[in-house]
Amino acid sequence: MYQPHTLQRIVESRLDDTRAQRVHSRVEIVAGRPDLAEDDPRRRARFEARMSGEAPVDAEKVWGSVDFVEAVFLDLGARAARAVARIVTDQGRTPLGTGFLVSPGVLITNNHVLEDVASAAGAWVQFNYELADDFTPRAPDVYALRPDVFFHAVSWRDLDFTLVAVGEQLRGGGTLAAQGYCPLSDRPDKHAKGATVNIVQHPGGDYKKLVLRGNRIVARTERVLHYEADTEGGSSGSPVFNDAWEVVALHHWGAPHLSTVDEDGRPLGTLVNEGVRISAIVAALRAALPGLPDTARVYVQAVLDAAGPARPQPAPVPDVLRPAAPERVRIDRDYANRRGYDTAFLPGLSVPLADIVAPVLAQVAPLPDGGTALAYQHFSVVMSAARRLAVVTATNIDGSTYIPIDRDTGLPARADAEGDAWFEDSRIDPARTVTQAFYSANSSFFDRGHLTRRSDPTWGTPEKAARANADTFHFTNCAPQHWLFNQSLRYWQGIERHYLEFGATLDRSRLSVLQGPVFAPDDPVYTDTAGRDVPVPVQFWKLVLRVQDGVPRATAFLASQRDLLPLPRRPVQPGADGAVPDVTTFLTSMAHLQELTGLDFTALIPHDTFVTPSPAEATPLRAVTSWADLP
Hints:
- An 8-stranded antiparallel sheet has the order 15-16-17-20-23-24-25-26, sandwiched between helices. Strands 9-8-12-13-14-11-10 form a 7-stranded antiparallel sheet.
- By secondary structure, the chain is α+β, with helices and mostly antiparallel strands.
- The chain contains 13 helices and 26 strands.
- A hairpin with a 2-residue loop joins β2 and β3.
C-alpha cells in the first residue's frame, strides 16, 4: 500500500545524491549561464541542435535567457494540454491527481495515484476540465477507466507509473481521439540541465493549469530529473515538457516554491520537484514486453510505437485501441418491427398503458398514425405535448435472456461504455421534443438523462438487444438531469437489477418498470439555443411491477434534483462549502404517486407494497437507506 512518508524518504535520498549537481546548476543559472549547468558537452550540443531544429545554434534562445519564443509554441502547448486529464474518484467528487494519454486509449499517471486495479476501476478521468476563454468552466468529457482490459504498473517505490486503458464515455460530447496524445520517447537529446521545462497539471484538483518556462532542470540521475517549478498536491502524474512540447518526465513528487534567490541574488535552499524520466519508463516497458500476456503486450507495444510523431496529435488508431466513433449506435429506422411495451408481460398482472395515461390524454402529443405511444424494442414512450418530454416510459425486462450491450459499439458482448449520440424519432415532430438545442445551451448544468435505462430492455436475441440499446438513445426517452443527479442516486440506479437478482419474483427474471418526470407548475425554466423556454422537472418517479410467490406487487419510488439545480459544473469536495447534496431515493404509495402525476394507478393500488405511515407522518414517503429497505 502506498505510504507517502516512505516515498518522501526515497525522494529525499535522491535529492541528497544530486545536491552537488543542483548547487552547480543554480550557480550557473543565477549567473546567467544556464547552458553551463549541463556539464556533459556532448549532451549540451545535441540538445541545442534538437531545440534549434538542427539549424545554426542561437544559444541564448535555446537556453531561455530571453523570453522570446516562436508563436507556434502556444499552438503546440494547447495541443499537448488537450491530452492531460484530471483523475477523480467518488464519482467525480474527490480529485486524485493528473494523467495524460500516451497513445490512443491509454493513460499514464503515477502508481501512487492509481496503485492497483481496484483503485483504477473506481476512478474517472475528466478531459477539458478547465476554464474557457470567457473564464467560465467548460463541460468536461468524462471517461471511466478499464483496468480489467489493460493495467500495467511499476511500484511507487520504483519508477512510480501506471498505464491503464480508458473505457466508456460517461459524459460530454467530444471524442477521446480529439484529445490527442503525448508520445513517450527515449531519444537522448530532449533535455539538458539548465534548460526550461513546462508542466500541464491539475494542482490541488483545480482546473487545468500551466507552469511555463520559468522552471529549470537542475539535476539528473539515471531514473529521475530534478527541476524547479510550482506544483501542488494533485499535480502528481503531470507531464513535464521541454520547449518543443516533448514529454521528458512524469512528475511525481515536489513542493511549491515562489522564490529561488534572496534579495542579494543568492540561491535559496528551495525544495525541488522530481519527475521520473521518460527514457527510464520506456526502457522498463521494453524490458517487460516479452513476459506480458498477449492482450497487455498489444497495448504496451502500441504505447512504444506511438513515439513516432514528434508532436502530440490525433493519429490513426490501432484497431485494438480504437475509441468509439461519435455515433456509436445505429438506429433501425424501420419502426414497424417494434412491438413496444407488452401489457401482459407479467402473469396475472395486466397493466394497460392506455388506462394509466387516460386522465391526461388531452395533454399527450398526438402521433401521425393516430396513436399515443411510441413503440420501441421492449419499451414504449408517451410524450407530453406541452412539456415536450415523456409523460411515461414503460419497459419490460427479462433477466433470463438479458444480453450486456457495449455502449462503445452498440453491439452485444463487449465492455460497457456509454454512447454519446442521441437521435430524433421521425414519427414525431422534433418541435414536440426537447432535443440537443436545450442540452447545448445548458451544458453547465444538465446531462441527457435516460428515462428507460439503457440496460433495461437489452434482452432476447442479440439483434433485438442491440436494437433496444440503440432505441434508448432517442430524445423521446431523454430528460434534463443535473450532472450530479445520477452520481448521487445510489439506490435508484440499481433497483431493477436488485429485484431481478435478489427479489423472489415468479421466475426470478421478469419485471415491468414504468418511470417518468413529475410535471409541476413551479418547475424552473431554462432556455434552449433557439430561445424556447423549457421547464425542467424537479422530481422523477419509478414504478417496479413484478409477481412474487404468485402475488402481484407494485413498488413506487421518488427522487428530486431540486437541491442540485443551482450547482454548475465545478470541483465539489465532500465536507467543503458547496458539497454535493445527498439525493435520497424515497419509497412512496401508489395513491401519492397518482396525486403527483395525474396518472391513473388505481388498478395497482391493491398490489401496493408501501406501508401506510403513522398518522403523525404527514407525507407518504420513506427514505431508502439500504437495500434491505426495498420490499
